[in-house]
Amino acid sequence: GAVVSQHPSRVICKSGTSVKIECRSLDFQATTMFWYRQFPKQSLMLMATSNEGSKATYEQGVEKDKFLINHASLTLSTLTVTSAHPEDSSFYICSTQDTGQETQYFGPGTRLLVL
Amino acid sequence: GDSVTQMEGPVTLSEEAFLTINCTYTATGYPSLFWYVQYPGEGLQLLLKATKADDKGSNKGFEATYRKETTSFHLEKGSVQVSDSAVYFCALIIVRDDKIIFGKGTRLHILP
Predict the structure, then answer these.
(1) Residue A84 pLDDT exceeds 90
(2) Largest CB tally within 10 Å, which of A1, A31, B31, B97?
(3) A17 has a pLDDT exceeding 50
(4) Closest Cα of chain B to A33: distance in Å?
(5) Helix, strand or coil for residue A85?
(6) For B12, what's the count of Cα atoms within 13 Å in the CB-facing half-sphere?
(7) Smallest CA–CA distance from A95 into chain B, residue
(8) Per the CB < 8 Å rule, is A103 touching B104?
(9) Which residues on A lie below 8 Å from B38 (Cβ)?
(10) CA dist., res. B14 & res. B28, Å (int)
(11) CA distance A60 to A46
């Protein structure tokens, strides 16, 4: 079965609203989760590293106040896109990695469309 | 279905050795191909990419050529350094649906 789940899988919202995306690790506890953004037909771009119990580490150019990350527990990290605008429309993917393993477990992704 | 297969690790080499990490794929249609690198404690970073057959992606001394006839995208570097120690992921994107598919990753250890 799936190791990492994301909810919702697809969301359409109006400009100016906030959207929360959940990422859950189902089979193991993850102290670290990663959030990526994928623009249409392009590669993944790392947005931030989410650490359980501490503040997320954001990549250069990613607005911390716009993309709020909360790693509330060892199995749940959330990404909130605040005051979403059409340019935020994208595919958001989370991933995690079991300690000592090479394999990255990716969530199925959340497609966000901001009208 | 669409998939990516890459050589299992760990791969251990001495500094200045030649590196090859094999990657083959199966896909319906014409995918774009990528190599990502993950350094310890960090997220994935795009290393290089190729979007059509015979394209060569290159970055930081690494190269990979999109071989449609062998459905491969092997990663190579002529002289590795200790700082290249990381996990490398091969991936493809099926253009028609944007879905990205990753290989399982190959851990590379470079000894000084």
Answers:
(1) yes
(2) B31
(3) yes
(4) 9
(5) coil
(6) 3
(7) B43
(8) yes
(9) 104
(10) 38
(11) 10
pLDDT at A1: 46
- B43–A49: do the CB atoms touch at under 8 Å? yes
> What pLDDT does residue B2 have?
83
- Give chain B positions within 8 Å (CB) of A41: 32, 93, 95, 98
Strand ranges (E), A1-115: 4-7, 10-13, 19-25, 32-38, 44-51, 57-58, 67-73, 76-81, 90-97, 104-106, 110-114
Task: State the DSSP string of B38-71.
Answer: E-TTS-EEEEEEE-STT-EEEETTEEEE-BTTTT
What does the pLDDT look like over A21-30, one tens digit per residue? 999 998 878 8
Instruction: Express each pLDDT in A36-57 by its tens digit.
Output: 998 776 778 889 988 888 889 9
Closest Cβ opposite residue B98 in set A91, A95, A102: A91
Residue B83 DSSP symbol? G
The pLDDT of residue A20 is above 90: yes
| Interface probe with B: pick from A23, A36, A102, most Cβ of B within 10 Å | A102
In which region does residue B68 sit, left (phi positive, over 0), alpha (psi from -120 to 50) or beta (all else)? alpha
Q: Smallest Cβ distance to A34: which of B43, B99, B106? A: B43
The DSSP bridge partners found for residue A45 are A37
Residues in chain B predicted with pLDDT less than 50, given as ranges, are: none
CA-nearest residue to B42 within chain A is A49
> A73-97 burial by CB neighbour count: b if 16+ within 10 A, else e?
ebbbbbbebeebeeebbbbbbbbbb
